[in-house]
Amino acid sequence: MPSHVQQMEHSLVYNIEPASPSMIRSLDRHCLHRVADGASAIDPNRSKLNQIIVGKKGGVLAALNALYESGVQKPAKQSESPYLRIVVSASPSYFRPDNPSAVGTWDDNRLKAWTEAIMNQLQSEHGPDLIYAELHLDEDTPHIHAVVAPTYGKKPRKPGKKKRNETPDEFEARKACVVASEGIRTVGRASHPELSKKGSFQRLRERMALAVDHLGIEYGEDRSVDAPDGISTREWVKDQAAQLRTDRKVLDAERMKAKTEIDQAHLEASMIVTTATEQAAKIITDAKVAVADERRSLEQDKARLSSDEDQLDKDRSELNMEYMNAANDLAVRETALKKNVEVMRGVVGVIRSAIDYFAEKLGLTKSNTMLETVGKIEKRLDDLTATKNARPDASGPGL
Fold first, then answer.
1. How far apart, in whole angstroms, are the C-alpha atoms of residue 290 and residue 282?
2. Where are the alpha helices (DSSP H) in the chain?
3. Would you give the distance in Å from CA 389 to the centre of its chain?
4. 219 contacts 237 by C-beta, under 8 angstroms
5. Cβ neighbours of residue 182 closer than 8 Å, sequence gap 6 or more
6. Is residue 130 helix, strand or coil?
7. Which one, of 175, 120, 111, lies nearest residue 141 by Cα?
8. How is residue 215 annotated by DSSP?
């Protein structure tokens, strides 16, 4: 910023006044109907540059109606000037330092900085009670028209006496409920906790001067309610602004220190996160490799198991085949054995008959040894015949 800005060569313009409904209607017409009227140096060709910063496009009355439609109560009928009408500007030398007499011109960067500072202060002071603010750029010097609808919490009247059949405890509870109630938001400058106080307008002007001090805009010449004896408001505000600049430098230094610490903390946190991310990535990669290895091992085991099952099926088939062949061979042998047993029985029968014949015809005595031998042969033949019932099934072992 040029050095002449730091020398506080520019003056603040801050006009604030209580406003009646008719004054609000007048301002509404002024904002909506931008025509040269002799009272204001309006250039209709530049009216398109005007900006509604807070409020409705329909104007001040539209913004006020929207406030009431939201549930805010209207002021009491006896309230003559419940609103505030504010006009804020600065010396032409601030907006156009190279040529203050060139009406209708301005430096864009200065205008932007001034508008931001003014609106920040208006919104800080009045909050939601600031219902309308419009920047006019179609007159000689940029300025902002603002309307404030001061509100307060209107509480019901505190009970003065008990109702019929009301107990003392119920009466006290009813009074406590009224005291604790936040009340209904209602428009009324005279009941506002701050704006109803003496000197409140001048304090607003002083705080606005402090808000634009960094732009090189200074206070006008009047008496501050807070200024010590023998000091003009201008001098007092200059002192306050100087202290504010000192405090701001300290705050900036602390903010820079905090920013450095935060940046360092962010760096350390970033390093921790990076390290943790790398470690997590390695763990995940190792886990993926381990899972892949395990999957391959399982696939190999599965393949081996499948091969073993195939071999088992083959062995089972071969075993069944060998079993069936053995059973068939055994059946053949059994048949042959049966025939041989029958032949032997026939031979034994012939021998027994021969023994009986010779014993009868020749008068010979039957030899016990010979009879025992024949009996053993018959028993052996019986044993051979009995083994056929124990032979295996020719259908296989059931594997």
1. 12
2. 3-6, 21-32, 60-69, 92-95, 108-126, 168-180, 200-211, 233-361, 368-386
3. 86
4. yes
5. 153, 155
6. strand
7. 111
8. G
Q: Are 235 and 209 in contact (CB under 8 A)?
A: no
Percentage, residues of the chain above pLDDT 70: 83
DSSP 138: S
**Is the backbone of residue 25 left (phi > 0), alpha (psi -120 to 50) or beta?**
alpha
Q: Decide if pLDDT at 5 tops 50.
A: no
The answer to whether the predicted template modeling score (pTM) of the entire model surpasses 0.85 is no
Strand order in the sheet with 130-136: 51-54, 130-136, 143-148, 83-90, 10-19, 217-218
Tens of pLDDT, residue by residue over 218-244, are 886 543 445 455 445 555 555 666 666
Q: Which two tokens stand for residue 98?
A: 């190279």
Strand stretches in 63-188, DSSP E: 83-90, 130-136, 143-148, 151-154, 184-187
**How many Cα atoms are found within 13 Å in the side-chain-facing hemisphere of 283?**
6
Average pLDDT over residues 74-90: 93
**Helices (H), ranges, 362-396:** 368-386
Confirm if 10 and 216 have CB atoms less than 8 A apart.
yes
Q: 158 versus 104: which is more confidently predicted?
A: 104
Q: Where are the beta strands (DSSP E) in the chain?
A: 10-19, 51-54, 83-90, 130-136, 143-148, 151-154, 184-187, 217-218
- The candidate with the shortest Cα–Cα distance to 156, out of 185, 132, 184, is 184
Radius of gyration of the chain (CA): 59
String of DSSP letters for 194-209 = TTTSTTHHHHHHHHHH
Q: Is residue 96 within 8 Å of 107, Cβ to Cβ?
A: yes
Express each pLDDT in 93-147 by its tens digit: 999 999 999 999 999 999 999 999 999 999 999 999 999 999 999 999 999 999 9
